[in-house]
Structures are given as structure tokens and as C-alpha cells.
Amino acid sequence: MSEAALLLPRLPSVDRVLSSPAAAALSAFSRAAVTEAVRVVLEGLRRKIRSGAVTDAAELDVDHVVAAAAVALAKASAPKLRRVVNATGVVLHTNLGRAALAGSAIDAVVAAAGGACNLEYDLSRAERGDRDELVESHLCALTGAEAATVVNNNAAAVILVLNSLAEGREVVVSRGELIEIGGSFRIPDIMAKSGARLREVGTTNRTHASDYRDAIGPDTAALMKVHASNYRIVGFCSAVELEELAALAVPHPGLLVIEDLGAGALVDFSKWGLPAEPVVADRLSAGADLVTCSGDKLLGGPQCGIVVGKSELIARLKKNPLRRALRCDKMTLAALEATLRLYRFSPDFEHEVPTLRALLRPLPELRATGEAALPLLARSLGSDFALELVRAAAQAGSGSQPEVAIDSLAIAVSSTKFSAQSIAARFRAGNPPVIGRIERDVFLLDLRTIDDPADLVPGEPGTAG
Question: 85-94+359-456: what fold?
Fold first, then answer.
């Protein structure tokens, strides 16, 4: 008789495992989950016996099966979305969740999530309200807009605007602004989904006012400008400014000027010594009828898409059935409202909004963080690793100011025994994972987004680091 034939009958049944004293160790999990895990473990053992990978009958006892099921259950029940430490030097890292929320915004999310709230209830009139009212007055005060609405991201905002105002008609866009950003988001594809027809004008590097003027016809619904958020065209190039587009639209009643601003700055970054970024209020003043932007980029709030502009146009957006499919939930609106209140009322908002604080941190502050982190890392890593505080270049990220390098400091971690990739993997394996970057085969922990030096020391996997 084969060894497999001898071992297979010794596998315990599912019922035997579940009724064993050892199974009490699995009481933290539901009966259904435990049953499924035990079945999976037993099936795995069955395959290993048949393949010859298991030859020791001790591996088939009930205690062994329970221990294997416990490991499987712990892994399966662990949260998929985890906190990580962003030491990449990219302040708004799309893959790492973009903007960190201010403390007051986090509190607002918790309060909204924990029970009932006046999401669509007018407390003064005791009747149904509009969820946009939670944020609209703040957006209007901060941008000078007549009205505003919010959907779940900027792509949704663009689709809603074009579908509501230009479905079946032409929208004129410069070829130099037909952008693609992360996740294969392309302006032509978004326009096609909206039902509007794209009318390309100009060339990749040069577009003139006459190109737009010649394209305007009875079927033209809008002139659209798209902020080149993740690239720049330099050299022999020209583009038509928003003011010129607004002037071109004047002789054509009903012709709209729309701008997809992308990053969506509410304040002028140049006053802090950073390169100027288009400010939403300035774009409305320059003649845009509607401006769309993201909430989780330079604004520093939750993921959402913001539309501000003329009240009659916003009213048309709100009547579109598509808006219901794109609307934000209570937690997003709570976070956005709290963030906007900081901008509007706090005298120190640039330090209270984490995105702004990270972008503006002075080098001496980064140096103090790095010097405090060095001994902590040295004790954690041991003598096989060399640590050095070095100059570095951070970025805003998420397509914001792509050509701008922000002076920063980083801790360079190197070793004669381990490659940069191996070092990076070691930090990623910590709890929480620490995500850095590799430059010239050196692993760097950029300090621009690090407030607590201890965050850079990865805890042991499975521990609360």
C-alpha cells in the first residue's frame, strides 16, 4: 500500500477538528469562517499527501490543523487598507492616498460616521435639505463663485459638467491640453463618455486664439481649458490664456468657458516662496463660467470633485440624474467642510492643513527630525547599515507642480551586505510599512512628510509599530 493511501485516512474530519478542545483557540472568529478555514487546511494537506510533500503523520493531527487554520484566519481577517509611513518625498502620493486630513477633518469624519447627522435635513425648516449646503457657502466665500456642487472626484466633475451642458454638441480643446494622467484617465475618453463631441484645435506645442475662433460654430457648446497638471511643454510653444478664451466667447451668447483646473489651489503658493499655482478664485475672475478641481490635491482635503461658478449653470448640474450617481457621502462632505472651515476662518490654516504644512516645512525643521531619527534607526538596524543625512528633492505629487523640485532632506540607508531593493523591502515589511524611494542605488527616507522621527523605524511584522 502506498504511503499516501496510509496517510489519507488519518486526516481528521472537519467536525472532529471543530469539536476538539484545541478549536477553542479559534473562538475569536465566526463559526462559518472557522469551518471554511479548516476545510481549506485539510484540502491543502490532502493535496500535499498525494504529491508526497507530507510524509509525517504528526502533521495531520488536530492541533496542527487548528494552528494552520489560526494562521490562515489571522491573515484573511487582517485589514487590507493599512496605515503606511510616506517617506517617498512625494507629498500627495496617489498610490498612498494623496492628502492627509487635518485633525479637525478626521474628527468630523468620525462624528459623521458614528451616527445620524443632518446630511440632507434642514434643521431650521424641519424638511429635506441639499447636501451641497454643507460646503457651498464656504466654497463660494473662498472662490468668489455664485454657486458650487461637489461630486466624488474631478473626473466625475468634468463628466457631469460636459454631460449637463454640452451633450451632443462640440467642446473645443487645444491639442496641447488633451492630457492623460495616472490610471489612464484621458480627457478625450472622459469627453466621449459625457456625450460631448471633442473638437481639437491647434497643435501639440502651439495653439492660437485664431484656432479657437475659427472652430466656433452653431454647434459649439463650450471652449474648454485643461490645466496641464502632470507635464509641461517648453521651448517653441504657445497657449491661449483663459482671459482670451473668455473674450472669444463674448460675441456668442450661450457659449461657455470651462476650465478643468486639476490640482485646485485655493490660495496663492507664491506668497510662501513656492511657484505660483493657478488659484480657483483667479480663474473665475479671469472669465471661466465654471471651474472644476480636485479636493485631495493642493486643497488638502478628501477625495472629491469640486465645481464652482455661475448659479444658473450649477443649477443645471444639480438637475442632471447623473449627479445622484456621482454624489459624495456624508464622511467625504464632513471632511471637506472641516477643511474649508480651516481655510476660511483659521489664522494658521497653512500649518493646520497637513498638505500645506508638508510643502512649507523649512529645512531646519527637517534637519531636526532627521537628527532625532538617526539614533533610533541605528539601534533598530544594527551595524550592517550606514546612515547619512543628505540633501534631497521632494515633489508635490499627484500631477501638482510636476516641474518643481522642493528642497528637502533625507536619510540615506546603505549596506555592503544588502542591496537598496532589499533594504526597501525590509522597511516595507514593517508594521506599519515605511515607504521610501531609491535613487542611484541608495535607499532614501525623505523627511518632508515625516513629523514623528519614530515613524521611520519599522515595527516588527505583526506588531503595533
Answer: Aspartate Aminotransferase, domain 1 (3.90.1150)
